[in-house]
């Protein structure tokens, strides 16, 4: 519980998000339903933005990592808050373009951007491309040349730190499909290659050490290694990076096994990065580079919840009780993929004490289709509204139509109102691209 908190329990014992009764939301919009609190999202964007203004004289830009939740409304909010975005596919570029996003504030990532995606990025005038292979640099140089433009780029590098939640490891050489290793010399070699491309303007470097990280020291170490590398390259080649992009990865609360961070705590992570960069600049006599960060999860995860209706309940005596809901791995594949843990509660009886441990099962034809295992809840009944918390990031964006289930709609709440930002799919949407060739008829 902290100042960004969007969740409350009202006098009727109903869960509220952003001041809206979730039971009323479920009635009005149906279930399953993704719900996002706009104030929360904007507060997080502002927290990072204001920290850069206050602690780094505004010499930087927050990029919302839009893979966490990409839709036109999110790009519109990011635009409105004056921040940038990170995109990773032609589809994300298209969505941003349709939202009227200013492309000078767009950074494009990807270890295997296709030729068509690079062309499209340049057509849209994407501000910066983060190159991740020599082949990509060559292709981009060629496409930029054809268009008579000089394209700004960063090189993705590996500082040799991999971080996950509360732990991090330092490795001499990172085994990753992303980036160029600093220690192995690949990052230096790539720098020389890119500097020699006449249609590319190398601005600096990007790294991203992982996601759902709470350990401040891992960000600090990564920044130290990147800055050491920048100094080394300056000494060896004369090229001094003017931009440093430290990626995203700040952790969020899913269950009480995770810390629940306040806006101030997130600002502290960023401050730790900033101070490290400043110190290193002093140490090496470097000009302070333009700083980019790419938070995705920490902006939107805790802003979102998913509402379900409880369906069949099955108890296997002495083994387990399954509470089935009208969602599942098609709208939240994170348990199936990562065994992610969640907090679930009965939104219509939120004040009742937890009396049993149950597993929340989805409706897909797959036994691994679970949303949460062994969660404490009051005894659920068919028809109850179940809320799963912290579902704003990597839920809608990873949803599918598995079993031809419909991806739930998304609504955003603010000032006592709820609006669709992604409307409900229909069965017609499912067959929109289906064709029956003549010979099958
Ligand atoms: N920048 C880059 C280059 C990234 O690859 C990512 C995430 C981010 C920024 C944003 O990281 P964040 O602040 O959201 O941690 N599907 C997984 C998460 C994959 C994250 C991939 N990259 C999940 O559901 O946990």
Question: Would you give an account of this structure?
Answer:
By secondary structure, this protein is of the alpha/beta class. It has twelve helices and 23 strands. It has helices at residues 22-29, 38-55, 72-80, 90-98, 115-123, 134-147, 186-195, 216-237, 263-284, 297-300, 334-338, 427-431, and strands at 7-9, 15-17, 20-21, 33-37, 60-65, 84-87, 106-108, 128-131, 151-158, 161-164, 167-170, 180-181, 200-206, 243-245, 290-293, 304-316, 320-325, 344-346, 356-361, 370-377, 385-389, 410-414, 417-422. The chain starts with 6 loop residues before the first strand and ends in a 10-residue tail after the last helix. The structure holds ligand LLP. Ligand LLP is lined by residues 65, 68, 86, 109, 208, 211, 247-250, 294-298, 334, 394.
Our Rg estimate from Cα atoms comes to 23 Å
What about the largest sheet? 9 strands, mixed
Distinct small-molecule ligands in the complex: ligand LLP
Which term fits the overall shape?
globular
Briefly note the structural class of the backbone: alpha/beta
Outline the low-pLDDT stretches. none
Percent helix, as a range, is: 25-40%
Keywords:
eight-stranded parallel beta barrel; nine-stranded mixed β-sheet; 441 residues; alpha/beta; binds ligand LLP; 31% helix; 26% strand
Provide a brief overview of the structure.
The protein has 441 residues and is of the alpha/beta class. The protein contains twelve helices and 23 strands. The strands form four sheets. Strands 4, 16, 17, 18, 19, 20, 21, 22 and 23 form a nine-stranded mixed sheet that branches. An eight-stranded parallel barrel has the order 5-6-7-8-9-13-14-15, surrounded by five helices. A three-stranded antiparallel sheet has the order 1-2-3.
């Amino acid at each position: 519980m902290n100042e960004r908190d969007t969740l409350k329990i009202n006098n009727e014992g109903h869960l509220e998000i952003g001041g809206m009764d979730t039971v009323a939301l479920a009635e009005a919009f149906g279930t399953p339903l993704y719900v996002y609190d706009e104030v929360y999202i904007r507060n997080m964007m502002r927290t990072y933005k204001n920290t850069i203004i206050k602690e780094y004289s505004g010499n930087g830009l927050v990029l919302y990592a839009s893979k966490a939740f990409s839709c036109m409304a999110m790009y519109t909010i990011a635009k409105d808050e004056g921040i940038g975005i990170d995109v990773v596919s032609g589809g994300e570029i298209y969505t941003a373009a349709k939202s009227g996003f200013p492309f000078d504030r767009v950074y494009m990532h990807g270890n295997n951007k296709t030729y068509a995606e690079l062309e499209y990025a340049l057509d849209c005038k994407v501000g910066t491309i983060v190159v991740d292979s020599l082949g990509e640099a060559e292709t981009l140089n060629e496409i930029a040349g054809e268009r008579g433009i000089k394209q700004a780029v960063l090189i993705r590098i590996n500082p040799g730190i991999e971080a996950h939640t509360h732990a991090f490891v330092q490795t001499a050489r990172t085994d990753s499909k992303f980036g160029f290793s600093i220690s192995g010399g690949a990052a230096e070699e790539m720098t020389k290659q890119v500097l020699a491309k006449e249609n590319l303007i190398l601005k600096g470097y990007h790294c991203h050490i992982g996601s759902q990280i709470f350990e401040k020291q891992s960000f600090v170490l990564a920044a130290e290694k990147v800055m050491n590398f920048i100094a080394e390259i300056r000494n060896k080649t004369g090229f001094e990076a003017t931009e440093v992009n430290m990626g995203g990865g700040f952790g969020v609360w899913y269950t009480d096994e995770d810390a629940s961070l306040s806006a101030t705590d997130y600002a502290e992570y960023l401050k730790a990065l900033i101070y490290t960069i400043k110190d290193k600049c002093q140490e090496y006599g470097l000009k302070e580079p333009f700083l980019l960060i790419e938070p995705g999860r920490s902006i939107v995860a805790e802003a979102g919840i998913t509402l379900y209706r409880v369906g069949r309940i099955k108890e296997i005596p002495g083994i387990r009780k399954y509470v089935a809901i009208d969602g599942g791995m098609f709208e939240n594949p994170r348990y199936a993929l990562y065994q992610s843990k969640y907090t679930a509660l009965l939104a219509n009886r939120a004040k009742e004490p937890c009396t049993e441990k149950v597993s929340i099962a989805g409706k897909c034809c797959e036994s691994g289709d679970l949303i949460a295992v062994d969660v404490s809840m009051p005894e659920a009944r068919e028809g109850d509204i179940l809320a799963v918390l912290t579902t704003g990031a990597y839920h809608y964006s990873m949803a599918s139509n598995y079993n031809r289930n419909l991806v739930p709609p998304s609504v955003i709440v603010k000032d006592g109102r709820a609006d669709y930002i992604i409307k409900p799919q229909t069965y017609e949407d499912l067959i929109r691209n289906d064709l029956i060739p003549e010979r099958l008829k």
